Description:
The chain is built from 8 helices and no strands. The protein is mainly α. The protein has 2 domains: 7-89; 110-179, no CATH class. The relative contact order is 0.07.
Amino acid sequence: MEYNTQLKKLTLPEYGRNIQNMVDYCITIEGREERRRCANSIINIMGNMFPHLRDVNDFKHILWDHLAIMSDYQLDIDYPYVIIEKEQLNAKPPRMGYSRPDMRYRHYGKNLEKIIKLAADTENPQEREQLIAMVATHMKKSYIQWNKDVDDRKIFVDLYELSEGRIDIRNSDIRLPDSKDFINNQRSKQQKKKK
C-alpha cells in the first residue's frame, strides 16, 4: 500500500494528486499536438476546480502558469500566454518604499496641514474665515484623541505655526466647541454602533 507521504511532494497541493498525475502523464506524451490537447483538458479541469475565481483578471493565464510550475517547466508545448519564468518564482519582490512625510505635529496629520495651506491661500474673506473655523475645530478634535485636556489657545498657536504665520487667530474672539462636547459626541456614536 502506498501512502501519500511516500509519494513525491506536490508542487501545488491545492490541485491535488490526481491533477499532478495528469500533468506527469502529459509530459510523457510523444506527439506535440496530442500533448497540447492533453494540456488544454487539464487546464479546463483545473478551472472547474475553482469556479469562483473565473472572474479574476487573467484567470486562464494563472492556470497556464500553474501548469508550467506543476510540470517543473518540462511540458514542451506552445503556451497561449507568456509563462512565468522559474527564476521569478523565488525572487524577492522589490523593497517597498514607505512615504515618511515631514509633519510638525503628527497628531494632526498630513492632510490637515494641506488644508491649512489651502485655508491660508483662500482669498475670499468669508470663505477663509469659515474654513479657518472648521480647521481649528478639526484640530481640536484631533488633539483631544491624544490628550483630553486642551486649551483653545494651544490650537490657535499650532495653527499659527502650521500656517507659517499666515493665519493668526491667537488674539481673536473665536470660540471652539468645548472638549466635553467632542467626548460626549464620541460616546454617543459608540453607543449607537453597539445597538
